[in-house]
Specification:
Helix content: 25-40%
Largest sheet: 9 strands, mixed
Strand order of the largest sheet: 1-2-3-5-4-6-7-8-9
Strand content: 15-25%
Order of helices and strands: EEEEHHEHEHEHHHEHHEH
Shape: globular
Structural class: alpha/beta
Number of helices: 10
Length: 276
């Protein structure tokens, strides 16, 4: 990995690296926060997945997470949201192509050649991080919007891989909302049965692990009723007796102002699980 940014932050370092991804077939950028505790040995890792149109920069510059990560001795790894490069397929709309990987393994042309963000996040990136940095195998995962969807899916599909999971404003039922229907049709094809493996509401129905879900949602989120539908997650978890903590916050929207307001609570949630 090649370090391309290096900034002192709360006794540790906020860095950005780039590397050649075998899974995606392109160069990827990744934000890595190294807390001061790495001087004494390995630390647990929180993987953060960002939302539509984002890069690795949005979370590391807007969320204010470094302070809390330093307090708890936690590394935070924040990858880009899609493959990038001249050979990577794109679409003029913001919700497909570059910046919109949806954390799936695409099976349809032209996307299948590079858009394998699920494998990248779940397999390649952790393997790389744990071989290069003082990171142990205690993992947590979190995200926002499209990234909240990715975090929930990764945790639900991989029992035992993560010790905790949380999400801000996640797309919980992509098979039932316009963002997800458009992306899944393009990346996975028209067979809706193939979509279920990347749909949190569907996965909860047959989940083998009862890893508690922590979800925060702003009531004034402009995408709440059309794209996010936390009511579907709540109803499915209740029917399946699946542990869910869903906070609804009046006045908060979909922005990083919302994330920054409660990121400390989420990092404390993960720190408690990672310390066990």
């Amino acid at each position: 990995m090649e370090r391309i940014e290096h900034h002192a932050s709360f006794g540790g370092w906020q860095d950005v690296y780039q590397h050649q991804s075998r899974t995606l077939g392109c160069t990827m950028k990744v934000g890595v926060y190294l807390p001061p505790q790495v001087k004494g040995g390995s630390v647990p890792v929180l993987y953060w997945l960002s939302g539509l149109t984002c890069t690795e920069q949005n979370f590391i510059t807007k969320a204010g997470a470094q302070r809390f990560a330093a307090e708890h001795g936690m590394m935070i790894v924040a990858p880009d949201t899609s493959p990038r490069g001249k050979s990577v397929a794109d679409d003029p709309a913001y919700d497909l192509g570059l910046g919109a990987g949806f954390y799936v393994n695409a099976t349809q042309k032209p996307w299948a050649a590079h858009f394998r963000m699920y494998d990248y996040v779940v397999e390649e990136l952790p393997s790389l991080i744990e071989s290069v940095f003082p990171a142990d195998d205690r993992r947590a995962i979190a995200g926002h919007s499209m990234g909240g969807h990715g975090a929930l899916v990764a945790a639900l599909r991989n029992p035992g891989r993560y010790r905790s999971v949380s999400a801000f404003s996640p797309i919980v039922a992509p098979s039932q909302v316009p963002w997800g229907e458009r992306a899944f049709t393009a990346y996975l094809g028209p067979d809706r049965d193939a979509w279920k493996q990347y749909d949190s509401v569907e996965l909860i129905k047959s989940a083998r692990e009862r890893l508690p879900l922590l979800v925060d949602q702003g009531i004034d989120d402009e995408f709440l009723d059309r794209e996010l539908r936390p009511d579907l997650l709540e109803a499915t978890c209740k029917a399946a007796d699946y542990p869910l903590t869903l906070h609804r916050w009046a006045g908060y929207d979909h922005s990083y102002y919302f994330i920054a307001s409660f990121i400390g609570d989420h990092i404390a949630h993960h720190a408690a699980a990672l310390s066990r």
